[in-house]
Amino acid sequence: MAKMGNWRDNKDVEVELDGIGGVNILVKADVHRSGINFPCYAFENQAETEGFAKMAKRAGYDVIGLPNYIVWHYDTQEKGNK
């Protein structure tokens, strides 16, 4: 998903995901309240953030990405820093 979006396009576009990374995650509190966590053990052959997505999907939650949003994890020339 990292290279599929365009920040100039519609920000409301959603893409269904199988797994997630840990840079920027927004989670509704009810997901955690239902017992979904970031497993430190293998869950469906995944752990931590990827396991979290698998666990949430199995519990019936949607795992959605927003490909047209930009999250800066480090400074780049594109961001304007030289």
From TrEMBL:
Pfam families: Anp1
Record-level GO BP terms: cell wall mannoprotein biosynthetic process; protein N-linked glycosylation
Cellular-component GO terms for this entry: mannan polymerase complex
Organism: Fusarium duplospermum
Protein family per UniProt: Belongs to the ANP1/MMN9/VAN1 family.
InterPro entries: Mannan_Polymerase_Subunit (IPR052086), Nucleotide-diphossugar_trans (IPR029044)
GO molecular function, one term: alpha-1,6-mannosyltransferase activity
Taxonomic path: Eukaryota, Fungi, Dikarya, Ascomycota, Pezizomycotina
Protein name (record): Uncharacterized protein
Record-linked PANTHER family: MANNAN POLYMERASE II, N-GLYCOSYL-TRANSFERASE (AFU_ORTHOLOGUE AFUA_4G06870)
